[in-house]
Amino acid sequence: MGRPQLTVAAVPLRLEGTFLLLVACPTVLLWTHFLSFTPDVFEGDLVLSALGGVLFAVMLVLHEIGHALVLRSQGGRVRVLTLSLVPHVIADGAPSDDRYMAYALGGVMVDALMLVLGLTLLGFGNATANAALAGVAALIVLVKLAALVWNLWPIPWNDGSLALETWNRIRLGRGSEAEALRRTARQGRGVSIPIAACVASGLWVTGLDPVQRIIFPVAALGAGVWVVRRWASVGREES
Ligand SMILES: [Zn+2]
């Protein structure tokens, strides 16, 4: 565990060794242009790719800072924001239901803002024929689009599913926790295959090489089936 090591905007951060992987993996993927839908300006340019890797990690941390700032604005306290392979906020005590929705969606709000920023920079980079800027901007757009799908897709227990469950609890009123969870499981099951199918077809048209064109869409559909099965088991445990 350890103590927080540095503080940014009054949010205590704790750096862990696995955070390096969060920078190194995208760096290698960009540098080798392993995924054909990543901007090709990074290919073979280790310095620019490393900057892309750092940017990727920073974007994930900014999502978490979104959660932390919402929590703080509601009078809650952030114990620590871990800079690890999966950056996350540890709160001191959970916010009440009426505040939890905003807290759960605080990261997504930052993702949406950064998507708009990325699209603006992309337009600017293209207009000025600045290939490096356009490439970096395209990376922001790509990562934030993926983040929005991932975080809003109700998967137990990511931001989207926590927000959906809270919404169900608020709508059903006090003492309805079990019914709210069953309803969330039903809704989560219902949307998962359509979302997975959209992701799979999106990956199919991104110009991947023939092998990846099979592997990635199949993986997306597999993820959809996995989420449905997880929701089914949540429903069973609770009824
Ligand atoms: Zn989040």
Please characterize this protein's 3D structure:
The protein folds into two domains: 1-151, no CATH class; 153-239. It is built from seven helices and four strands. The chain has helices spanning 19-32, 46-73, 97-127, 131-152, 159-172, 177-204, 210-238; strands spanning 6-8, 11-15, 77-83, 88-92. A four-stranded mixed beta sheet has the order 1-2-3-4, covered by helices on one side. A hairpin with a 2-residue loop joins strand 1 and strand 2. Helix 1 crosses helix 2 (46-73), helix 2 (46-73) packs antiparallel against helix 3 and helix 5 runs antiparallel to helix 6 (177-204). The radius of gyration is 19 Å and the shape is globular. The two termini are 36 Å apart. The model has no long low-confidence stretch (mean pLDDT 92). The chain binds zinc ion. The site of zinc ion has 5 residues, from helix 2.
Q: Which characteristics define this entry?
A:
239 residues; alpha+beta; 2 domains; 4-stranded mixed beta sheet; 7 helices; 4 strands; 8% strand; globular; binds zinc ion
In short:
By secondary structure, the chain is α+β, with helices and mostly antiparallel strands. It has helices spanning 19-32, 46-73, 97-127, 131-152, 159-172, 177-204, 210-238, and strands at 6-8, 11-15, 77-83, 88-92.
Form type: globular
How many E strands?
4
Overall mean pLDDT = 92
Strand order across the biggest sheet? 1-2-3-4
Order of helices and strands: EEHHEEHHHHH
Helicity, in percent? 55-70%
Instruction: Show unreliable segments.
Output: none
Ligands (ions, cofactors included): zinc ion
Q: Into how many domains do the coordinates divide?
A: 2
Question: Structural class of the helix and strand makeup?
Answer: alpha+beta
- How far is the N terminus from the C terminus? 36 Å
